[in-house]
Specification:
3-stranded antiparallel sheet; 14 helices; about 325 residues
């Protein structure tokens, strides 16, 4: 089979024309297994023998994911004003989205996000404790390691361990779909330090797509920023901000909604724009990115007062929190 650069790609167990036909047939079978036929005009799709609402956005999964993203952002923006009836209506929405789209993964993420947001909003003990924050960051780390292994092991079913195949079937082909391209797709051996403009293949696993599209070094920087952002949300006691980041971070393990050419669909970037200065040793000062060299010079020249190198805290981050409040109000 010919790769995207014209190179010959070996086919497992086959050669030349027979190999190309076998590889093509395998890709077609994998695609048809999880493909959804939809009618954009009618607003529904048909998959696994059931009608699923899609409203012309491509497929039912895409519709459910967009509703999840908007719900998660809405809870972050308006949770202070939400009454019990609002939480109940969001619960009904979650069940309704599943009934209309039959997307199990999105339903589980929506439900977990809603429950965690409600608990963090109503329980000061849990909100101010460390268990959720540490557990959430650990879960993201585990999900990222799983993504690395998936990129390493992805192949046709007969060439993967049986237990991986079982997991892949539960995940509706997300692991095997990484490999299902003529050049091996997003498998680990194809990753480059800074990506490749020819790498445009689409598959669901978000962290794999992040490193495949943009490269190992940019991907690693994104992961470092993600964990720093989660830590800052904990430090500044922004519990709902942490829920938003955690929801996106965990969902990105199996869905690449946030890793997209449509940059604005990644709502975590709002928080990153608000809190990035709190990640730096500037004593909680809020600045614009072009002021960064001057800020380091100013704080470095005043090292005697202990401002440089001082970590961000609730007490010294009033400027950062004010900036975050301004961005939040603009988003509303």
């Amino acid at each position: 089979a010919a790769g995207g650069d014209g190179a010959r790609i070996p086919c497992h167990g086959c050669t030349d024309g027979a190999g190309a036909r076998t590889e093509g047939r395998r890709r077609a079978e994998l695609s048809s297994q999880y493909h959804e036929d939809y009618d954009a005009g009618a607003g529904y799709g048909i998959k696994e023998g059931s009608r699923r609402l899609c409203l012309g956005v491509g497929n039912s999964n895409a519709l459910a994911i967009m509703i999840w993203a908007l719900m998660t952002l809405g809870v972050y923006l308006f949770h202070e004003k939400m009454k019990p009836v609002h939480w109940m209506l969001l619960g009904v929405l979650t069940v309704g989205v599943y009934a209309a789209t039959m997307t199990r993964t999105t339903f589980l993420v929506m439900a977990a996000t809603l429950v965690l947001a409600f608990v963090m909003d109503k329980s000061s003990k849990i909100r101010e404790g460390s268990l959720v924050y540490i557990g959430g960051m650990a879960a993201v780390a585990v999900g990222f390691v799983f993504s690395l292994y998936a990129a390493h092991i992805s192949n046709w079913y007969e060439l993967m361990p049986a237990w991986v195949v079982r997991i892949d079937r539960i995940l509706t082909g997300r692991i095997s779909s990484i490999y299902a391209f003529e050049n091996g797709g997003g498998v680990l051996r194809n990753w480059k330090l800074f990506g490749d403009p020819n790498y445009v293949e689409y598959f669901d696993m978000g962290y794999v797509r992040l490193f495949f599209w943009y490269g190992i070094i940019p991907g690693a920087c994104c992961m470092v920023l993600l964990f720093f952002l989660m830590r800052v949300c904990r430090t500044l006691k922004d519990a709902q901000g942490f829920v938003l980041v955690l929801s996106f971070a965990l969902f990105t393990v199996v869905e690449a909604h946030a890793v997209s050419v449509y940059l604005a669909r990644n709502y975590v970037l709002f928080l990153l724009g608000a809190y990035w200065t709190a990640m730096l040793p500037l004593g909680g000062e809020a600045i614009w990115w072009w002021q960064l060299p001057g800020a380091f010079w100013k704080h470095g020249s005043k090292a005697a007062d202990g401002s440089f190198g001082r970590k961000a805290t609730v007490g010294n981050c009033s400027e950062v929190q004010e900036k975050a409040a301004t961005i939040k109000e603009a988003a509303r």
